[in-house]
Fold this protein.
Amino acid sequence: MTSATAQNYQPELDPRELRRAFGSYVTGITIITTWGDDGSPRGMTANSFTSVSLDPPLLLVCVGKSASSYPAFRKATVFGVNLLHEGQKDISSLFASKVTDKFAGVGHGPVHTGAPILKDCLTWFDCTVHERIDAGDHMILIGRIHAFETRPAMPLGFYSGRYMSVDPTLRQGGSPSHTMLVGYLIEHEGKVLLREDGEGRLMLPVARHRRAGAVLQLDDSRTLALRPEETFLYSVFDVGEREPGYIIYRTRLAASGEAETQLPPGYRFFGPLDLPWDRLPLTEIRGMLRRYLAERREGRFSVYIDSSDGGRLAMIDGSSRPWRAPDFVAESIAETEGTPTS
Ligand SMILES: Cc1cc2nc3c(=O)[nH]c(=O)nc-3n(C[C@H](O)[C@H](O)[C@H](O)COP(=O)(O)O)c2cc1C
């Protein structure tokens, strides 16, 4: 092939294949937001977000010219980029749709530039328009970041046209080879909550990670209200080389009365006498439940950590109390961070 031929060569690119190839790049999901001419908020789902520069602080998104909110972004002086967390698939679908009032049930408000910023998201960036670049069927919108906030939650991922979860064990140097499951031993009126795995086995409710606070997110997006003041670490153990490890917390349901009728399908409370031990597949979980029932009778609980000699129990005496850093700790933190102590 001569160089002249190469320059003139116009490959027939199949747009569907190209879209598929673009889709093999893993992204998060954002909702980009601005104001329309009529003063109403406009927004759309966009995964074309890219960080651009730290100094000055710049980011970009690509806005399709066929989007009905394109004219708003074409004229915008300010806009927001809101990165979604893993519980926000519905928001992504809503803002990817042509629904006229996408913001009706979605909390938003101005923060710094006046752009509409979503109240609930993983991270938001509040921007003024730095530059607009025409790029084929899209416009590259470069924003200068004036304010941003991020909170500890897992992002909503997108790959090959589908939403995906991001494996938390790969974060912050965590070992990708060993997942820890966070399980909950939840007591309510002397009974313990278990969930069916769909194959007749019973397991403890698990969470992808422990969120501080009083609400446990169950796997079908329902939640259980817990008592944070009665939530304690109870057991940490490995099951096998290739199995996940377990971190188990013990806690109690906050609700009383009709709590049992509000459980998601597959969840049920079992009293000490009707616990179906043969349906609990893990020896470690059976042992832990026996210890729990014995300790509950006594009203004194321990924390178990497994070890090569069969494990260790540390007794916890007394009830919990709020933690406040002693003055010398607070002072040394303030010194390190350069903030005044009073
Ligand atoms: C996961 C996902 C990512 C998207 N990313 C973009 C994007 O980066 N740019 C874009 O213009 N449209 C993107 N879209 C499509 C728009 O969200 C969609 O066209 C939407 O209907 C536009 O809303 P509007 O017509 O009300 O403005 C994406 C859609 C999805 C589901």
The chain has a mean pLDDT of 85. Residues 283-298 form the longest helix (16 residues). Residues 24-159 form a domain with the Pnp Oxidase; Chain A fold (CATH 2.30.110.10). Residues 29, 44-48, 62-64, 67-69, 96-98, 158 surround flavin mononucleotide (CB under 6 Å).
